[in-house]
Specification:
Elements: E1 2-6, H1 11-23, E2 28-30, H2 41-53, E3 59-64, H3 68-74, E4 82-84, H4 88-96, E5 102-106, H5 112-124, H6 131-146
Helix pairs in contact: 1-5, 2-3, 4-5
Length: 148
């Protein structure tokens, strides 16, 4: 199950991604926004991040113009590893080495087809563990120390 959200700048791309998810019969919940009227992206990122953090959702997708603002907000939540990805390579390694649980996409940076390719790679890539477990443990320790 995927939690998805966008601001007004990412709304159109979000709607295209939802079509792809429906085609592939991948379940999702849309946390907004619901049109192109201006919204504050931190509120959408907060809701998606809380949904993934609660473990009710396996992963999330956040879309704004750059993907950066959304990822900054999402990474304020303990246990969230949100990665802005702008191509298949970054999507692959976000999952493979970093066990990313939220994908951020910049709607102004990619075409719809590129975004679908990024998403497809992100969904298809499994975390490989091994030496990366040690690094994720360091990240968890940093979270414990700084996110009280």
């Amino acid at each position: 199950m995927i939690a998805i959200g966008s601001d007004h700048g990412g709304y159109r791309l979000k709607e295209e991604i939802k079509k792809y998810l429906e085609e592939k019969e991948i379940k999702y919940t849309d946390f907004g926004c619901m049109n192109e009227e201006r919204v504050d992206y931190p509120n959408i990122a907060k809701e998606v991040s809380k949904a993934v953090q609660s473990k009710k959702y396996d992963m999330g997708i956040l879309i704004c113009r750059s993907g950066l603002g959304m990822s900054i907000v999402a990474n304020k939540f303990k246990g969230i590893r949100c990665t802005p990805c702008h191509n298949e390579y970054t999507a692959k390694y976000a999952r493979l080495h970093n066990n990313s649980n939220i994908l951020a996409i910049g709607a102004d940076d990619v075409t719809v087809n590129e975004a679908i390719c990024i998403l497809r790679m992100y969904l298809a890539t499994e975390y490989e563990g091994g030496r990366h477990d040690e690094r994720l443990k360091i990240i968890e320790d940093i979270e414990k120390e700084n996110m009280k």
